[in-house]
Amino acid sequence: MGQENAENRVLLVFDGDCAFCQACVDAGHRFLPYMPSVRTWQGVDLHAAGLTREEAETSVRLLGPDGLRAHGARAVALLLALQPCAVWRAAGRVMLTPPVSWLAEAGYRLVSRYRHLLPGSADCGT
Questions:
Q1: How many C-beta atoms lie closer than 10 Å to residue 39's C-beta?
Q2: What are the pLDDT tens digits along the chain (126 aa)?
Q3: What are the two backbone dihedrals, phi and then psi, of residue 120, each rounded to the nearest 5 degrees?
Q4: Which of 63, 67, 69, 103 has the most crowded Cβ, counting Cβ within 10 A?
């Protein structure tokens, strides 16, 4: 039960003005057995969360107990590593391991930079 309580305190913070970001969160809710609490950065007290506006605008953030703080591809990988399903956990662990982690982060940065050009993402910031 303690593990479940810790997982429930994990928070995923994303850009609520981005249609692509919202679609990714929606996909997480559909396909992943476990999703942490999810909030848009626009609805979070950034100061209390220890984030700057620039940090929140530039990449997804995963925040949680015991100093859990991750962003970008690492946040996605850790979210997968928290899954109860062994296949998702393994995928998360692989994403955390170099050189895959380097490629994942480069891919995340590329998508993040051009998310406003992706289909259905006209409202995304840059």
A1: 16
A2: 334 444 458 999 999 998 889 999 999 999 999 999 999 999 999 999 999 999 999 999 999 988 899 999 999 999 999 999 999 999 999 999 999 999 999 999 999 999 888 876 555 554
A3: 75, 10
A4: 63
Lookup: tokens for 63: 């925040």
| Type of residue found at 64 | G
Domain boundaries, the chain: 11-115
Angle at 6 between CA 42 and CA 57, to 5 degrees: 20
**CA 7 and chain centroid, separation:** 14
Contact 105, 73 (CB under 8 A): yes
DSSP 8-state secondary structure symbol assigned to residue 83: -
Distance CA 57, CA 61 (A): 10
Are the beta carbons of 61 and 12 closer than 8 angstroms?
Answer: yes
Q: Which helix (H) or strand (E) holds 38?
A: strand 37-40
